Amino acid sequence: MTPTSNLKRPRHPMPDDIRLVLESRALMDDYRARPDYQQNDYIGWITRAKRPETREKRLRQMLDELERGGVYMKMAHPASRKTE
């Protein structure tokens, strides 16, 4: 998230493992291109998981959505659609 974010709710810090996987899959730019609220929602949603399996499933979903584009939390998000 940018330091000039307009978020009205607490920001979730990005865990190192999530940062590393975004960087290793070359998805950090796609992540940063999303609105601040989406970045925050993804991180909060992933880190709130109680079970490691759930956390991993949520992380995979975020990565897949960022890679595919055009979708956010299984909903259409035309602003992030990628051209092929």
TrEMBL record:
Protein name per Swiss-Prot or TrEMBL: Bacteriocin-protection, YdeI or OmpD-Associated
